[in-house]
Protein backbone atom coordinates (compact mmCIF):
# COMPACT_ATOMS: atom_id res chain seq x y z
CA UNK A 1 0.00 0.00 0.00
CA UNK A 2 1.30 3.44 -0.91
CA UNK A 3 1.29 6.02 1.87
CA UNK A 4 -0.59 9.13 0.85
CA UNK A 5 -1.35 12.61 2.15
CA UNK A 6 -4.13 14.97 1.09
CA UNK A 7 -3.46 18.72 0.96
CA UNK A 8 -6.79 20.56 1.23
CA UNK A 9 -9.43 18.79 3.33
CA UNK A 10 -12.62 20.37 1.99
CA UNK A 11 -15.37 18.72 -0.01
CA UNK A 12 -13.03 17.03 -2.46
CA UNK A 13 -10.37 16.26 0.14
CA UNK A 14 -13.02 14.30 2.02
CA UNK A 15 -14.09 12.58 -1.24
CA UNK A 16 -10.50 11.43 -1.77
CA UNK A 17 -10.34 10.26 1.86
CA UNK A 18 -13.34 8.01 1.26
CA UNK A 19 -12.02 6.67 -2.03
CA UNK A 20 -8.59 5.97 -0.50
CA UNK A 21 -10.29 4.11 2.36
CA UNK A 22 -12.29 2.02 -0.12
CA UNK A 23 -9.38 1.00 -2.33
CA UNK A 24 -6.61 -1.44 -1.50
CA UNK A 25 -3.68 0.28 -3.19
CA UNK A 26 -3.30 3.49 -1.17
CA UNK A 27 -3.61 4.29 2.53
CA UNK A 28 -4.09 7.74 4.07
CA UNK A 29 -1.26 8.88 6.33
CA UNK A 30 -2.68 12.34 7.06
CA UNK A 31 -3.91 15.64 5.73
CA UNK A 32 -2.73 19.23 5.65
CA UNK A 33 -5.15 22.16 5.54
CA UNK A 34 -4.74 25.83 6.46
CA UNK A 35 -8.18 25.95 8.05
CA UNK A 36 -8.69 25.18 11.77
CA UNK A 37 -12.20 23.97 10.99
CA UNK A 38 -10.94 21.49 8.38
CA UNK A 39 -8.25 20.23 10.78
CA UNK A 40 -10.77 19.76 13.59
CA UNK A 41 -13.04 17.87 11.22
CA UNK A 42 -10.17 15.60 10.16
CA UNK A 43 -9.08 14.99 13.77
CA UNK A 44 -12.66 14.16 14.74
CA UNK A 45 -12.60 11.57 11.95
CA UNK A 46 -9.40 10.09 13.41
CA UNK A 47 -7.10 11.47 10.69
CA UNK A 48 -3.59 12.76 11.48
CA UNK A 49 -3.16 16.47 10.64
CA UNK A 50 0.24 17.87 9.66
CA UNK A 51 0.91 21.20 11.43
CA UNK A 52 2.59 22.86 8.43
CA UNK A 53 3.09 22.38 4.70
CA UNK A 54 6.85 22.12 5.38
CA UNK A 55 6.26 19.09 7.58
CA UNK A 56 4.57 17.39 4.60
CA UNK A 57 7.48 18.37 2.34
CA UNK A 58 10.00 17.08 4.92
CA UNK A 59 8.25 13.76 5.56
CA UNK A 60 10.27 11.25 3.53
CA UNK A 61 7.83 8.43 4.30
CA UNK A 62 5.13 9.56 1.82
CA UNK A 63 4.64 7.96 -1.61
CA UNK A 64 1.89 10.14 -2.99
CA UNK A 65 0.19 13.49 -2.29
CA UNK A 66 -3.25 14.49 -3.56
CA UNK A 67 -3.79 18.25 -3.87
CA UNK A 68 -7.43 19.32 -3.36
CA UNK A 69 -7.18 23.03 -2.60
CA UNK A 70 -8.85 25.89 -4.52
CA UNK A 71 -7.47 26.23 -8.04
CA UNK A 72 -5.28 29.34 -7.63
CA UNK A 73 -2.77 27.60 -5.32
CA UNK A 74 -2.47 24.27 -7.18
CA UNK A 75 0.63 25.34 -9.11
CA UNK A 76 2.83 26.48 -6.21
CA UNK A 77 1.79 23.54 -3.99
CA UNK A 78 2.32 20.92 -6.71
CA UNK A 79 5.73 22.27 -7.75
CA UNK A 80 6.91 22.40 -4.11
CA UNK A 81 5.77 18.78 -3.59
CA UNK A 82 7.44 17.54 -6.78
CA UNK A 83 10.67 19.34 -5.85
CA UNK A 84 10.46 17.63 -2.44
CA UNK A 85 10.40 14.27 -4.25
CA UNK A 86 6.71 13.41 -3.91
CA UNK A 87 4.48 11.85 -6.57
CA UNK A 88 1.46 14.12 -7.02
CA UNK A 89 -2.19 13.94 -8.05
CA UNK A 90 -3.70 17.40 -8.54
CA UNK A 91 -7.38 18.18 -8.63
CA UNK A 92 -8.88 19.69 -11.78
CA UNK A 93 -8.48 22.24 -13.23
CA UNK A 94 -4.79 21.59 -12.72
CA UNK A 95 -4.17 25.33 -13.20
CA UNK A 96 -5.53 28.18 -15.29
CA UNK A 97 -3.15 28.26 -18.29
CA UNK A 98 -1.27 25.78 -20.41
CA UNK A 99 1.98 27.66 -19.72
CA UNK A 100 1.58 27.18 -15.95
CA UNK A 101 0.76 23.51 -16.47
CA UNK A 102 3.98 22.84 -18.38
CA UNK A 103 5.97 24.42 -15.52
CA UNK A 104 4.35 21.85 -13.24
CA UNK A 105 4.99 19.01 -15.69
CA UNK A 106 8.62 20.13 -16.08
CA UNK A 107 9.06 19.94 -12.28
CA UNK A 108 7.73 16.36 -12.40
CA UNK A 109 10.06 15.38 -15.25
CA UNK A 110 13.08 17.08 -13.65
CA UNK A 111 12.49 15.21 -10.38
CA UNK A 112 11.52 11.93 -12.05
CA UNK A 113 8.16 11.90 -10.24
CA UNK A 114 4.64 10.88 -11.30
CA UNK A 115 2.27 13.80 -11.75
CA UNK A 116 -1.30 13.60 -13.02
CA UNK A 117 -4.68 15.29 -12.74
CA UNK A 118 -7.89 13.92 -11.29
CA UNK A 119 -10.04 13.90 -14.45
CA UNK A 120 -12.41 11.50 -12.73
CA UNK A 121 -15.36 12.16 -15.03
CA UNK A 122 -13.66 9.90 -17.56
CA UNK A 123 -15.13 7.14 -15.38
CA UNK A 124 -18.70 8.51 -15.43
CA UNK A 125 -21.05 5.75 -16.60
CA UNK A 126 -23.18 8.13 -18.70
CA UNK A 127 -20.08 9.39 -20.53
CA UNK A 128 -18.86 5.83 -21.14
CA UNK A 129 -22.26 4.88 -22.59
CA UNK A 130 -22.22 7.94 -24.91
CA UNK A 131 -18.68 6.98 -25.99
CA UNK A 132 -19.83 3.40 -26.63
CA UNK A 133 -22.74 4.62 -28.81
CA UNK A 134 -20.31 6.81 -30.78
CA UNK A 135 -17.55 4.19 -31.16
CA UNK A 136 -19.82 1.23 -31.99
CA UNK A 137 -21.90 3.15 -34.57
CA UNK A 138 -24.98 2.08 -32.59
CA UNK A 139 -27.11 4.46 -34.70
CA UNK A 140 -24.78 4.87 -37.67
CA UNK A 141 -22.31 7.68 -38.03
CA UNK A 142 -22.65 10.39 -35.35
CA UNK A 143 -22.73 13.96 -36.66
CA UNK A 144 -23.78 15.94 -33.58
CA UNK A 145 -23.36 15.52 -29.83
CA UNK A 146 -24.81 17.79 -27.18
CA UNK A 147 -23.39 17.34 -23.68
CA UNK A 148 -25.10 19.46 -21.05
CA UNK A 149 -25.29 20.00 -17.35
CA UNK A 150 -28.02 22.31 -16.10
CA UNK A 151 -28.73 23.59 -12.60
CA UNK A 152 -30.71 26.48 -11.17
CA UNK A 153 -28.67 27.55 -8.11
CA UNK A 154 -26.27 29.98 -9.79
CA UNK A 155 -22.56 29.67 -9.20
CA UNK A 156 -21.65 28.49 -5.66
CA UNK A 157 -21.08 31.35 -3.21
CA UNK A 158 -17.58 30.18 -2.17
CA UNK A 159 -14.24 30.70 -3.99
CA UNK A 160 -15.84 29.35 -7.18
CA UNK A 161 -17.48 32.75 -7.67
CA UNK A 162 -14.18 34.66 -7.52
CA UNK A 163 -11.69 35.13 -10.34
CA UNK A 164 -8.62 35.34 -8.07
CA UNK A 165 -9.22 31.76 -6.84
CA UNK A 166 -9.77 30.36 -10.34
CA UNK A 167 -13.55 30.38 -10.12
CA UNK A 168 -16.12 30.10 -12.90
CA UNK A 169 -18.05 27.26 -14.48
CA UNK A 170 -15.66 26.84 -17.42
CA UNK A 171 -12.87 25.96 -14.97
CA UNK A 172 -15.19 23.97 -12.72
CA UNK A 173 -17.36 21.88 -15.08
CA UNK A 174 -15.96 22.87 -18.47
CA UNK A 175 -12.69 21.13 -17.73
CA UNK A 176 -14.52 17.80 -17.24
CA UNK A 177 -16.86 18.05 -20.22
CA UNK A 178 -14.10 19.22 -22.61
CA UNK A 179 -11.87 16.37 -21.41
CA UNK A 180 -14.74 13.94 -22.11
CA UNK A 181 -15.22 15.37 -25.64
CA UNK A 182 -11.52 15.09 -26.45
CA UNK A 183 -11.36 11.55 -25.06
CA UNK A 184 -14.41 10.50 -27.12
CA UNK A 185 -13.66 11.96 -30.55
CA UNK A 186 -10.23 10.95 -31.93
CA UNK A 187 -9.99 13.90 -34.31
CA UNK A 188 -8.54 17.38 -34.48
CA UNK A 189 -10.74 20.27 -33.32
CA UNK A 190 -10.53 22.58 -36.32
CA UNK A 191 -12.54 25.51 -34.93
CA UNK A 192 -14.49 26.47 -31.84
CA UNK A 193 -16.95 29.09 -30.69
CA UNK A 194 -17.85 29.97 -27.09
CA UNK A 195 -20.24 32.25 -25.28
CA UNK A 196 -19.94 32.71 -21.52
CA UNK A 197 -22.92 33.54 -19.26
CA UNK A 198 -22.95 36.14 -16.49
CA UNK A 199 -26.47 35.83 -15.14
CA UNK A 200 -25.75 35.59 -11.40
CA UNK A 201 -22.07 36.60 -11.41
CA UNK A 202 -20.15 39.19 -13.44
CA UNK A 203 -16.67 38.41 -12.12
CA UNK A 204 -16.53 34.87 -13.54
CA UNK A 205 -18.74 32.89 -15.92
CA UNK A 206 -21.69 31.11 -14.31
CA UNK A 207 -22.18 28.98 -17.40
CA UNK A 208 -21.22 28.80 -21.06
CA UNK A 209 -21.92 27.31 -24.44
CA UNK A 210 -18.96 25.91 -26.36
CA UNK A 211 -19.18 24.45 -29.88
CA UNK A 212 -16.26 22.27 -30.99
CA UNK A 213 -16.04 21.72 -34.76
CA UNK A 214 -14.16 18.47 -35.35
CA UNK A 215 -12.23 17.63 -38.52
CA UNK A 216 -14.88 15.25 -39.92
CA UNK A 217 -17.61 17.90 -39.57
CA UNK A 218 -18.94 16.47 -36.29
CA UNK A 219 -20.22 19.28 -34.07
CA UNK A 220 -19.92 18.75 -30.31
CA UNK A 221 -21.78 21.26 -28.16
CA UNK A 222 -20.92 21.59 -24.46
CA UNK A 223 -23.32 23.59 -22.33
CA UNK A 224 -23.08 24.37 -18.64
CA UNK A 225 -25.81 26.53 -17.13
CA UNK A 226 -26.75 27.40 -13.57
CA UNK A 227 -29.98 29.37 -14.14
CA UNK A 228 -32.16 26.62 -15.63
CA UNK A 229 -35.29 25.79 -13.66
CA UNK A 230 -36.17 23.23 -16.30
CA UNK A 231 -33.15 21.16 -17.30
CA UNK A 232 -32.53 19.91 -20.80
CA UNK A 233 -31.32 16.29 -21.10
CA UNK A 234 -27.73 15.37 -20.13
CA UNK A 235 -26.92 13.99 -23.61
CA UNK A 236 -28.52 14.34 -27.06
CA UNK A 237 -26.73 12.43 -29.81
CA UNK A 238 -27.66 12.54 -33.49
CA UNK A 239 -26.48 9.98 -36.04
CA UNK A 240 -27.40 9.03 -39.62
CA UNK A 241 -29.80 6.29 -38.51
CA UNK A 242 -31.04 7.34 -35.11
CA UNK A 243 -31.13 9.65 -32.13
CA UNK A 244 -30.12 9.03 -28.50
CA UNK A 245 -31.31 10.96 -25.50
CA UNK A 246 -30.12 10.59 -21.89
CA UNK A 247 -32.49 12.42 -19.53
CA UNK A 248 -30.08 12.50 -16.57
CA UNK A 249 -26.65 11.30 -15.41
CA UNK A 250 -28.23 8.05 -14.26
CA UNK A 251 -31.08 7.39 -16.71
CA UNK A 252 -29.16 5.51 -19.39
CA UNK A 253 -30.00 6.18 -23.04
CA UNK A 254 -33.23 6.01 -24.96
CA UNK A 255 -32.53 5.25 -28.63
CA UNK A 256 -34.94 5.83 -31.48
CA UNK A 257 -34.40 4.62 -35.04
CA UNK A 258 -36.84 4.20 -37.91
CA UNK A 259 -37.47 1.11 -40.03
CA UNK A 260 -38.11 2.93 -43.30
CA UNK A 261 -36.67 6.41 -43.80
CA UNK A 262 -38.82 7.25 -46.82
CA UNK A 263 -42.29 6.93 -45.34
CA UNK A 264 -45.29 7.19 -47.61
CA UNK A 265 -48.61 8.77 -46.62
CA UNK A 266 -47.10 11.24 -44.16
CA UNK A 267 -49.84 13.00 -42.22
CA UNK A 268 -49.01 16.73 -42.10
CA UNK A 269 -48.85 18.66 -38.85
CA UNK A 270 -50.99 21.77 -38.54
CA UNK A 271 -49.06 24.86 -37.47
CA UNK A 272 -50.33 28.44 -37.10
CA UNK A 273 -48.99 29.34 -40.53
CA UNK A 274 -50.13 26.19 -42.34
CA UNK A 275 -49.31 22.52 -42.80
CA UNK A 276 -45.89 20.84 -42.68
CA UNK A 277 -44.92 17.33 -43.68
CA UNK A 278 -41.20 18.03 -43.16
CA UNK A 279 -41.63 18.41 -39.41
CA UNK A 280 -44.39 15.81 -39.01
CA UNK A 281 -43.59 13.09 -36.46
CA UNK A 282 -42.83 9.58 -37.70
CA UNK A 283 -45.61 7.05 -37.48
CA UNK A 284 -45.19 4.83 -34.40
CA UNK A 285 -45.30 1.69 -36.58
CA UNK A 286 -42.14 2.87 -38.30
CA UNK A 287 -40.15 3.51 -35.09
CA UNK A 288 -37.80 1.24 -33.16
CA UNK A 289 -37.20 2.50 -29.64
CA UNK A 290 -35.08 0.81 -27.00
CA UNK A 291 -33.14 1.62 -23.84
CA UNK A 292 -29.42 1.20 -23.22
CA UNK A 293 -28.19 0.86 -19.63
CA UNK A 294 -25.31 2.88 -18.19
CA UNK A 295 -21.87 1.50 -18.95
CA UNK A 296 -20.04 -0.14 -16.07
CA UNK A 297 -17.04 1.62 -14.58
CA UNK A 298 -14.86 1.65 -11.49
CA UNK A 299 -13.52 5.00 -10.25
CA UNK A 300 -10.89 3.17 -8.19
CA UNK A 301 -9.07 2.52 -11.47
CA UNK A 302 -7.73 6.09 -11.20
CA UNK A 303 -5.70 5.44 -8.01
CA UNK A 304 -4.82 1.91 -9.20
CA UNK A 305 -3.32 3.41 -12.35
CA UNK A 306 -1.29 6.03 -10.45
CA UNK A 307 0.13 3.33 -8.17
CA UNK A 308 1.00 1.13 -11.17
CA UNK A 309 2.79 4.08 -12.78
CA UNK A 310 4.76 4.73 -9.56
CA UNK A 311 5.75 1.05 -9.61
CA UNK A 312 6.81 1.32 -13.26
CA UNK A 313 4.13 -1.14 -14.41
CA UNK A 314 1.96 1.15 -16.52
CA UNK A 315 1.61 4.49 -18.30
CA UNK A 316 -0.58 7.26 -16.96
CA UNK A 317 -4.23 7.15 -18.04
CA UNK A 318 -4.53 10.95 -17.62
CA UNK A 319 -1.55 12.07 -19.71
CA UNK A 320 0.22 15.43 -19.76
CA UNK A 321 -0.53 16.23 -23.41
CA UNK A 322 -4.24 15.47 -22.85
CA UNK A 323 -4.31 17.81 -19.83
CA UNK A 324 -2.58 20.56 -21.81
CA UNK A 325 -4.99 20.18 -24.74
CA UNK A 326 -8.00 20.73 -22.47
CA UNK A 327 -6.35 23.91 -21.14
CA UNK A 328 -5.70 25.05 -24.73
CA UNK A 329 -9.39 24.60 -25.56
CA UNK A 330 -10.39 26.61 -22.46
CA UNK A 331 -7.98 29.41 -23.35
CA UNK A 332 -9.24 29.49 -26.96
CA UNK A 333 -12.84 29.52 -25.67
CA UNK A 334 -12.04 32.64 -23.62
CA UNK A 335 -10.66 34.31 -26.75
CA UNK A 336 -13.77 33.33 -28.72
CA UNK A 337 -16.05 34.74 -26.01
CA UNK A 338 -14.06 37.99 -25.74
CA UNK A 339 -13.93 38.56 -29.51
CA UNK A 340 -17.29 37.00 -30.39
CA UNK A 341 -15.49 35.13 -33.17
CA UNK A 342 -15.10 31.53 -34.28
CA UNK A 343 -11.48 30.64 -33.44
CA UNK A 344 -9.25 28.42 -35.61
CA UNK A 345 -7.83 25.72 -33.38
CA UNK A 346 -5.78 22.67 -34.49
N1 LIG B 1 -12.82 16.09 -9.64
C1 LIG B 1 -13.99 16.51 -9.20
O1 LIG B 1 -15.02 15.93 -9.52
C2 LIG B 1 -14.05 17.70 -8.30
C3 LIG B 1 -15.22 18.03 -7.61
C4 LIG B 1 -15.20 19.13 -6.76
C5 LIG B 1 -14.05 19.88 -6.63
N2 LIG B 1 -12.93 19.54 -7.34
C6 LIG B 1 -11.70 20.33 -7.23
O2 LIG B 1 -11.12 20.07 -5.96
C7 LIG B 1 -10.47 21.24 -5.48
C8 LIG B 1 -11.04 21.61 -4.11
O3 LIG B 1 -12.41 21.85 -4.25
P1 LIG B 1 -13.38 21.68 -2.99
O4 LIG B 1 -14.75 21.65 -3.53
O5 LIG B 1 -12.92 20.57 -2.13
O6 LIG B 1 -13.13 23.08 -2.25
P2 LIG B 1 -13.36 23.38 -0.71
O7 LIG B 1 -13.44 24.83 -0.59
O8 LIG B 1 -14.48 22.53 -0.19
O9 LIG B 1 -12.02 22.84 0.00
C9 LIG B 1 -10.77 23.42 -0.22
C10 LIG B 1 -9.92 23.20 1.04
O10 LIG B 1 -8.58 23.63 0.73
C11 LIG B 1 -8.09 24.32 1.88
N3 LIG B 1 -6.99 25.19 1.46
C12 LIG B 1 -7.04 26.38 0.83
N4 LIG B 1 -5.80 26.84 0.58
C13 LIG B 1 -4.95 25.89 1.07
C14 LIG B 1 -3.54 25.79 1.12
N5 LIG B 1 -2.74 26.75 0.61
N6 LIG B 1 -2.99 24.70 1.70
C15 LIG B 1 -3.78 23.73 2.24
N7 LIG B 1 -5.12 23.78 2.24
C16 LIG B 1 -5.71 24.85 1.64
C17 LIG B 1 -9.30 25.07 2.43
O11 LIG B 1 -9.11 25.45 3.76
C18 LIG B 1 -10.40 24.01 2.24
O12 LIG B 1 -10.54 23.18 3.36
C19 LIG B 1 -10.67 22.30 -6.56
O13 LIG B 1 -9.57 22.31 -7.41
C20 LIG B 1 -11.89 21.83 -7.29
O14 LIG B 1 -11.97 22.27 -8.63
C21 LIG B 1 -12.91 18.47 -8.15
Strand proportion, as a percent range, falls in 25-35%
In CATH terms, what is the architecture of the largest domain? 2-Layer Sandwich
**Rg over C-alpha atoms, rounded to the nearest angstrom:** 23 Å
Please report the first level of CATH classification, the CATH class of the largest domain. Answer: Alpha Beta
CATH homologous superfamily label of the largest domain: Dihydrodipicolinate Reductase, domain 2
* Global outline: elongated
Sheet having the most strands: 9 strands, mixed
The level of helicity is 25-40%
CATH topology of the largest domain: Dihydrodipicolinate Reductase, domain 2
Uncertain spans, ≥5 residues at pLDDT below 50? none
Straight-line distance between termini? 42 Å
Would you tell me the overall average pLDDT?
A: 97
Strand order of the largest sheet: 15-12-11-10-6-9-8-7-16
Question: Topology of this protein?
Answer:
Layout: E1 2-7, H1 11-22, E2 26-32, H2 36-44, H3 53-58, E3 64-67, H4 74-83, E4 87-90, H5 98-111, E5 115-117, H6 125-135, E6 142-150, H7 169-184, E7 189-197, E8 207-214, E9 219-225, E10 235-239, E11 242-246, E12 253-258, E13 269-271, E14 274-276, E15 287-292, H8 301-310, H9 320-339, E16 343-344
Parallel strand pairs: 1-2, 1-3, 3-4, 4-5, 6-9
Antiparallel strand pairs: 6-10, 7-8, 7-16, 8-9, 10-11, 11-12, 12-15, 13-14
Helix pairs in contact: 4-5, 5-9, 7-9
The structure holds nicotinamide-adenine-dinucleotide.
